[in-house]
Amino acid sequence: MDHLACFKPGDLSSTSAPDLTSYRWRLLAQGDSWFSTSAAKLNAHANLLQEMVFKDPACAVNCAGSGEALSHMVDLESAADFVSLLSDDGAPVWDGVLLSVGGNDLIAAAQTPAHAADGSDVPLHLRLIRHQTEWGAPSAGVARYFSEPGWQTYSDYLRTNVRHLLTLRDQGPSAGKPVFMHCYAVPMPRPAGADDSGLGASGPWLYPALKAYALPSADWAAVSRLMVFHLAQLLKSMAADKEQFPGLHVFDSTTVPLAPATPGTSGSSGDWHNEIHLNHSGCFKIARAWSEHIEAVLSGVKTVEPVRKRP
């Protein structure tokens, strides 16, 4: 098993440019902080790509960059390298595209307050959590805190933008190639930001949002689980819709057993480096399982391609 060789877009035009043809699998990657190449994040072993392994030599050109801030999946204006390498006529032919998207957008939606700065109410369709006066019946469990109208808005947003990314793929030389997305693991809302690890003055993320909404702390873990499982179900339903999302493959990370962080802790705990980022052991567990899923799909693609050729 070989580790995935990771390159940056600039490496392709350098004097010592890598020979991509020496790898059996050539992948293009774009994503949020789980793919970040920030030195601080790499030192914390918080990059999934660095932990991926394949039976055959594989490489990835990672366009996620070194930014430390949370990035949103539709910020393609600042992802010119990714768009060019995916859709330009002269771009390489990639065997697949790796995407780590949707998680930061989910966090941002959960952070949306119930009231705007001017004191006016933020409508339910623009936020994921209900104010205390809007809670449903206790018999609904933690779902009584959840804004279904807000979830519909988020779902429409994610579906629209994943379709856009697939359209970009089909405009270039890699048309029809598989696109791989992962679901996310369930974080424990806790006061564990990135400040103590050199990752920038950010976080915690869910912890202050749930406190601001006055949700009972005993329900925080279940609320986090509810949101992450909603996202996993959404992503898997998209992958199952081959007409709207052709070539999309989703790996359900929620099925990978992880050691949860201890509630109330502020540093690395269990398989988590901070509140929403995995540490070395967490990345190792998810990346190894996702690698198997990806290589199985890629091998299947390779074996069926000759059948499509005409005599």
Can you walk through the features of this model?
Helix content is 32%, strand content 10%. The strands form two sheets. The chain has a six-stranded parallel sheet, with helices on both faces. The model is unreliable at 196-201 and 302-311 (pLDDT under 50). The protein has 311 residues and is α/β, with parallel strands linked by helices. The chain is globular. It has a single domain (2-103, 159-202, 232-308), classed as Rossmann fold. It contains seven helices and eight strands; from the N terminus they run E-E-E-H-E-E-H-E-H-H-E-H-H-E-H. It starts with a strand and ends in a 7-residue tail after the last helix.
Strand and helix map with partners:
Elements: E1 2-3, E2 5-7, E3 25-31, H1 39-43, E4 53-54, E5 58-62, H2 80-87, E6 96-100, H3 103-111, H4 148-171, E7 179-182, H5 206-212, H6 220-240, E8 248-251, H7 280-304
Short description:
This protein is an alpha/beta fold and 311 residues long.
The amount of helix comes to: 25-40%
Shape: globular
Biggest sheet character: 6 strands, parallel
Number of domains: 1
Biggest sheet strand line-up: 2-5-3-6-7-8
CATH architecture: 3-Layer(aba) Sandwich
Low-pLDDT windows of residues? 196-201, 302-311
Q: Can you count the beta strands?
A: 8
Oligomer: single chain
Summarize model confidence as the mean pLDDT. Answer: 89
Radius of gyration: 20 Å
N-to-C SSE series? Answer: EEEHEEHEHHEHHEH
What structural class is derived from the secondary structure elements?
alpha/beta
Strand content: 5-15%
**What is the number of helices?**
7
State the separation between the terminal residues, measured CA to CA.
36 Å
The CATH class, by name, is Alpha Beta
CATH topology: Rossmann fold
Protein name: SGNH hydrolase-type esterase domain-containing protein
GO molecular function, one term: hydrolase activity, acting on ester bonds
Organism: Kinneretia aquatilis
